[in-house]
Amino acid sequence: MHLLSVVALTASLAAPALAAPAPAITPAPEAAVVKRATSCTFSGSAGAASASQSQAACATIVLNNVAVPSGTTLDLSKLADDTTVIFEGTTTWGYKEWAGPLLSIAGNKITVKGATGAVLDADGARWWDGKGGNGGKTKPKFFAAHNLKTSSITNLSIKNTPVQAVSIAGCDGLTITDMTIDDSAGDTGSLGHNTDGFDIGTSSNVTVNNAKVYNQDDCVAVNSGTDITFQNGLCSGGHGLSIGSVGGRSNNVVDTVTFYNNVIQNSVNGLRVKASVGDTGTINKVTYNKITLKNISKYGALIEQNYDGGDLKGTAGTGIPITNLVVENITGTGAVSSSGYDVVVTCGSSTSCTGWTWSNVAITGGKTYGSCTNVPSVTKCSALTIERARRSRVHALQQKLNALEHDLAIEAAETRLNLEQYAKSECRTLTDMFMLKLPRELRDMVYRHLSTKFEERIDSDYFRSTMDPVTKCYSHDEARWKTTRFPDHFWNTDYVDPEFVRELSINYYRTSSFVFGDGQGLISKFLNTDQLGLGFPPKELVSNLEVRLSAITHDRGSFRAYIFGMPKPPERLQAALEGLMELKSGSNVCVQFSTEAKCETERRELFAGALPVLFPRMQVAMLAGYQLKFVLDRKYAFRLEGDILEGLEERLWDMPDYYNTDGSSFRAASNASPFSPYTD
Asked: Where do the TM regions start and end (predicted)?
């Protein structure tokens, strides 16, 4: 039996009976060296060792479903220049408590790619115990991206790292694109700890673009380096975007670091700059721009010079100045928990934090930190406190305004009710006196002024569009008076004497002139509908009626027909005159006919087409005793006499001087007996 297996078996027998067995340790197989080739593919449990042994001999290394043995680094740190490394399938690692790393890649002009669907799964749950690197099991770090020069890493998907995921050190000209680090399973039971996304040190010209990090520690921590950019990223579950802690290392210089267009959500912190107390170094030209914060539990922004193994420990120092810090375009309104702090700044002196820019920063929702020290004037915690006081004052004033508006609304409603009651009382009193004191003859004279309409247009609903002129004078609600269609409550008997309403309604029908378009059956419907509840139809009262007809219809379905019109069929004109004969004898009837002609020839043609339809109806009405008037094109009015059909067209169109050339006047021939000019 293999020695490792004996040791594992002995340990398991010695463990308590109820303890869960430790994950098995997989031994490393012997590796075969691949001779120089353009492309080399490695897979299975021997793939890691073979790839490590053969890395200098291959221009392209394909790692397909490699199972890395326990305690072994997938070591690609001696790659030849211009080598491409491609991960395919699922790469796994055996379990062992050790420091790692599980993966190491180094070299010059190296290209690392993840094939579609490829996953590097460390299965960190086997190590997670809630203690991270501070005790418990010894946990291996995952990916040492060290000493990569002019290289790129693209589309890697990393899952469940035991502790820190990606360590970038000694790199120059490294670009990482579309990397996903998903340690979100460590949230369960808070077992994942110190699972930093990117730890960057002693590197320059490093860009991380479009990364997604789900973890339980810093999304990014720049401990030293120059020209570092993290942009278009998503950080969730961890400690946000951090500088440092800086201090206590061989390199303690951070210069020109940019965090741009990132989202930080469900995290302990948003922005954090940590300078260790008692150490020396520099933090210069750090920029946070266009950062969105969501659901931050502790600090929206924390800039401190008193980090000592934890945040805000002791008195801030001055050994690591924070200069030329830019914080701008931060969106975090309401993002901080009420138990957290919006912004915390602790500087050791007025000269250790200088040259800051703080613009368009909205971080709210939490408390105001009461112990900010030596803050540059552009960012004073006291200014934040003043701003919070202003917001509280505005909120209080808004609440007061809301209360006043509420009280005013109640008072307005009560006032409207009182006015309405007064209107009812006054209207009823007036109409009662009117009915009691004025004889019918005088009342009729009054009604003529109150309800007679010179022109009352009847639409398809045949409702009155005019409100009661009596109650108009008393109603407080003018807008309602203007917009409400008849019948309306102003005719209600709560306002006026019922008999007054009845007489007013009778006079309305008897004296008003009702105007109709060419709606089919509309005249008959109006004349036979007892709309006002009189007990009999309006046709017994109506004596003035006008029908307005057009030879042209405008059809919106056709652009040409809409603009220029099309002749109406005779049936349409005939239908418009239905019900005309239901008027009482002696009624005044006016028929207006519009040709909408553009020239005399067109006028003649349109009128000739309508003539056989219009005049038989009008002749019957005239013989029934109606006083008929005919109006042509809104210019010329005639009263019908005698035989209206015989010779009408010739007399109308062939008479000399019938129309003046400018259309401004009319002179009828003396022999035009069927038509003579009509004037009121």
From this structure: none
